[in-house]
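=== Given protein ===
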Amino acid sequence: MDDLVVIGKIGKPHGIKGAVSVHLTADIQWNDTEYFFLEIQNEPVPFFIENINVLSKKIVVKLKGISSWEDAKKLTHLNILVPKKTILENEWEQWIGFKVLDTAKNNQWIGIVEDFLQNNGLIWMEIKRANCNETFLLPYHTHFIEHISESEKIIYYKVTEGMY
């Protein structure tokens, strides 16, 4: 348990099929996360992830073997633990100053990454709009980032209609 750290707690059940909301105090790399541990009677117990949905204001996780609201309710308030190597330690800050291109619009230049903001476990890129001083926010999430070219200092971003 020495290499495990608490990154949040299980919240209320979400729906009737056993999904739960999670409340995070640290950011983790969800793409590579197949499981996490829940602290049950002071012992880490592994739970495998079936599905993760990052919604606008919360993260909903469906765990294998948890299939009802009643099962999910038993997990409420349990600590979530992951190996230390899973935690993202502001790795995104290395992308400040990178150009952001909209891959949905034939790699049209959107702007330059000015800063990153964290809010409720979500990370946002603050983008300075191309050819003016206005800024706007885009979610920093692997669902939208298609590729990052470190050599060219470009983030290829799949924008959804209305994001900027």
